[in-house]
Amino acid sequence: MKRTLEQKRARQSLQFIKSMAADADATATRPKIDKKFRTKLNTLVQKAPVQILQNGMGQMLAFLLADNGGKNGSKQEASGVLYEHLEQWLCDSPDQEYPCRVYPGTNGLIEQLTAGDRQTYIHAQNETLALFIWLKKFAAAWLDERGQ
């Protein structure tokens, strides 16, 4: 079944947010998810588009990395999980299902973003802002404690 790019963004965002919505103990690949984690993730998701528009995508990604303890941080912070989600959306291998990959088949979103040309940077930024439209809506619905 063919889906529009908007449907793909919505699906990816919904899966990510719903996977963060329930309490869960930490594992080797997943942080402990509790009310504090969800509140921080929701705050990051709601504020990230403004950070992108005010400072640029590179600055927003640098903030997420710094908040997580750097590129080699534990990825146990909400900021590291959000960074990984954006990296997955923009860098995973291209295929028929996700033709919007800006840096297909590469690792290191921040490295690709800072090494690429202006046109690709703007494409990545626009794609990220489009993804955040859905992330914000779903985070407000599933992560906002006031809505629970």
Describe this structure in words.
By secondary structure, this protein is mainly alpha-helical. It has a single domain (35-141), classed as AF1862-like domain (Peroxidase, domain 1). Helix content is 63%, strand content 0%. It has 6 helices and no strands. Helix 1 crosses helix 6 (118-142) and helix 2 (35-55) runs antiparallel to helix 6. The longest helix is centred in the C-terminal third of the chain and has 25 residues, at 118-142. The model has no long low-confidence stretch (mean pLDDT 86).
- Using the CA coordinates, give the radius of gyration: 15 Å
CATH class call: Mainly Alpha
Mean pLDDT comes to: 86
CATH architecture: Orthogonal Bundle
**CATH homologous superfamily?**
AF1862-like domain
CATH topology, what is it called? Peroxidase, domain 1
Helix and strand content put the structural class at mainly alpha
Main β-sheet description = none
Number of strands: 0
Q: Uncertain regions: pLDDT < 50 for 5+ in a row?
A: none
- Span from first to last CA? 34 Å
Count up the helices. 6
- As a percent range, the share of helical residues equals 55-70%
Number of domains: 1
Order of helices and strands: HHHHHH
- Beta-strand portion reads under 5%
Q: What is the general shape? A: globular
Write a concise keyword list for the protein shown above:
single chain, 148 residues, mainly alpha, Peroxidase, domain 1
Summarize the structure.
The chain is mostly helical. It has one domain (35-141): AF1862-like domain (Peroxidase, domain 1), CATH 1.10.520.
